[in-house]
Amino acid sequence: MKNIGKISAATAALDFVSDNMIVGLGSGSTARIFIEKLANRVKTEKLNITCVATSISSQELGIENGLNVVDLDSVDKIDVTIDGADEVDKNLNGIKGGGAALFYEKIVAKASEKNIWIVDPSKQSEKLGAFKLPIEVLPLGSAHVFRYLDSELNLDPTYRKNKDGSLLTTDSGNYIIDVDISNVSNIDGLSTQLIEHVGIIEHGLFLNICDTLIIGNNPVEIKTRKVY
Ligand code: 5RP
């Protein structure tokens, strides 16, 4: 069944794109709806839009739909990136990586002047941790990182697997370890601790990255991050 919340949020995001922009294409089902709608608008209004994708699947979808998708390194900056999220709190901090694209998503987000997240209402959360936090790790030594997450940080890690039981690999050939952060009170501290640990490539905590959140309520709700 189609998720009306995702469709409404993705549709509302079109208003943030204007002619001659460089647009980052997110990953996941909500971002896919946006990509199709953007392609349709570009065709109908004959817009000059250049896109940068956050995953191979978003790149393929964009190209299939006629969008001009270029490499990140061929542009100086991205005007706006529209992406989904797995969980988002009232300060517009969130967890991403449910689709295993968090590493490229964060690189593209950091190269973007503005980051807009499109979510259905179920993604809102009082405190981050309802969704398992994905951590992208280098395959070499991943068992050691796993033990660190388990015995030292007590985060109940699990390797993400494919349906056939094999370990899932990301677009950059790494593994994903999902951890439970529901008992963690210092999220900022955890973010730093994880990124400083050798073997961890990136994690799905996206803190102070999202500028605008579009929630697919009826009517659509738009929130802007407060900068303190
Ligand atoms: C992929 C992501 C997605 O943006 C996130 O999983 C949300 O996906 P969906 O729109 O399908 O709920 O972070 O790595």
Describe the structure.
There is one protein chain. This protein has 228 residues and is an alpha/beta fold. The protein has two domains: 132 residues, Rossmann fold (3-Layer(aba) Sandwich); 71 residues, 2-Layer Sandwich (Alpha-Beta Plaits). It contains six helices and 14 strands. It has a seven-stranded mixed beta sheet. The chain has a four-stranded antiparallel beta sheet with strand order 9-10-8-11. A three-stranded antiparallel beta sheet has the order 5-6-12, with no helix packed on it. Helix 1 crosses helix 2. The protein starts with a helix and ends with a strand. The model has no long low-confidence stretch (mean pLDDT 97). Bound molecules: ribulose-5-phosphate (5RP).
Q: Helices and strands in order, then pairings?
A:
Layout: H1 4-13, E1 22-25, H2 29-45, E2 50-53, H3 56-64, E3 68-69, E4 78-83, E5 87-88, E6 94-95, H4 102-110, E7 112-119, E8 133-137, H5 142-152, E9 158-159, E10 175-179, H6 187-195, E11 200-203, E12 205-206, E13 212-215, E14 221-224
Parallel strand pairs: 1-2, 1-4, 2-3, 4-7, 7-13
Antiparallel strand pairs: 5-6, 6-12, 8-10, 8-11, 9-10, 13-14
Helix pairs in contact: 1-2
The chain binds ribulose-5-phosphate.
Ribulose-5-phosphate binds next to helix 2 and helix 4.
Bound molecules: ribulose-5-phosphate
**What is the CATH topology assignment of the largest domain?**
Rossmann fold
* H/E element sequence: HEHEHEEEEHEEHEEHEEEE
Give the overall average pLDDT.
97
Short description:
By secondary structure, this protein is of the alpha/beta class. It has 6 helices and 14 strands. Bound molecules: ribulose-5-phosphate.
